[in-house]
Automatic annotation (TrEMBL):
Region named Disordered: 30-60
InterPro entries, sorted: DUF3558 (IPR024520)
Native organism taxonomy: Bacteria, Bacillati, Actinomycetota, Actinomycetes, Pseudonocardiales
Annotated protein name in UniProt: DUF3558 domain-containing protein
Keyword line: Signal
Species the sequence originates in: Saccharomonospora piscinae
Leader sequence segment: 1-25
Low complexity compositional bias, start-end: 37-59
Domain of life: Bacteria
Keyword Signal: yes
């Protein structure tokens, strides 16, 4: 039996997939960031000694990588900007107070951490690609949290983090859809 939260997560996946298929994520930009990190371990990584001011990431505002219009078909998401755990993050939340289901995700820019510094959160680290951009995927299988980490350059990256619903096993599907919406707005890898 699927929990109520699991059903909402599945509905969010379906809605986000329909956004990608319909091309709603094409041109508008906006802000994104969850109010609290569902899994603090996904925000913690090893810091490299690179100078953040010389990375591509330092010129990117994470809240401009998605817009409310991009997510309108899924719900009314409110962005919140935060600096935390060595990243500038934008959290998007579909507020229960405003009739949403409370779904939240984060898009973070790490100016001095590469995809090679991603921590294994318990489910291993798997190399992948998002629209042909090098990326890695890691997650916490106990809580079904997932992070898709995309390369900006040799010293910076963008993380898409989706908290899970234990037992639902779909946070990486949602993260992949969101990463697919964000990636076209990232600069080319030098």
């Amino acid at each position: 039996m699927v929990s109520k939260t699991g059903m909402r997560s599945l509905a969010a996946v379906a809605a986000l997939l329909s956004l990608v298929v319909s091309g709603c994520a094409a041109k508008k930009q906006g802000y994104a960031e969850p109010e609290t990190s569902p899994s603090s371990s996904l925000d913690e990584t090893h810091t490299s000694s690179s100078n953040p001011s010389s990375s591509i990431g330092s010129s990117i505002d994470p809240c401009e990588l998605l817009s409310a219009e991009d997510l309108a078909e899924v719900g009314d998401f409110k962005p919140t900007y935060k600096e935390q755990g060595g990243a500038r993050a934008c959290h998007w939340q579909n507020s229960v107070k405003d009739g949403g289901d409370g779904f939240v995700f984060a898009v973070s820019v790490r100016d001095s951490q590469s995809i090679e510094t991603v921590n294994d959160e318990g489910g291993g680290i798997r190399e992948d690609e998002v629209n042909e951009r090098p990326s890695v995927v890691t997650g916490d299988p106990k809580f079904d949290d997932c992070a898709i980490v995309m390369k900006l350059d040799d010293m910076s990256r963008v993380d898409v983090t989706v908290p899970g619903d234990p037992g639902s096993d779909n946070s990486c599907e949602v993260a992949k859809v969101i990463a697919g919406m964000v990636e076209p707005r990232l600069p080319d890898i030098p």
